[in-house]
Design a protein that fits this description.
Layout: E1 10-11, E2 20-24, E3 30-37, H1 42-55, E4 59-70, H2 72-83, E5 89-93, H3 98-106, E6 113-116
Parallel strand pairs: 3-4, 4-5, 5-6
Antiparallel strand pairs: 1-2, 2-3
Helix pairs in contact: 1-2
């Protein structure tokens, strides 16, 4: 993995701009995100999801308990990543409240994503 494309790369906070830190989950396949997923941090989020898909083997976990906000485009990136996996699913743990609402609104019945609240 070449930085800054590697999981673990973070977008620094700059004068009121949002930050996103993404790191691998210890002990299981997946990633943990902290901060906000929005227009400022979207490139980092999409790079992390690309890495997740590349390493995917059946079930991947996305831990979002420290994410304060995710916009519709961030949820879209997650949904598209899950739909493009060759098999298995993505388990999203402790997402911000808007994520399951957006999934249900635009991708009802998407069985490639399991939301664990």
């Amino acid at each position: 993995m070449d930085a800054p494309h590697a999981v673990g790369w973070s977008v620094p906070a700059e004068s009121g701009r949002a930050a996103l830190e993404v790191s691998p989950l210890p002990g299981r396949a997946g990633l943990r995100a902290r901060g906000e997923i929005n227009g400022v941090t979207r490139q980092s989020w999409e790079q992390a999801l690309s890495e997740l898909a590349r390493r995917h083997a059946g079930v991947s976990y996305v831990e979002l308990s420290d994410v304060a906000f995710v916009d519709v485009a961030g949820v879209t990136a997650l949904a598209v990543t899950a739909m493009n996996l060759p098999d298995g699913r993505v388990v999203v743990e402790n997402p911000p409240p808007q994520l399951p609402r957006v999934l249900e609104m635009f991708w009802p019945g998407l069985d490639r994503i399991e939301v664990a609240l």
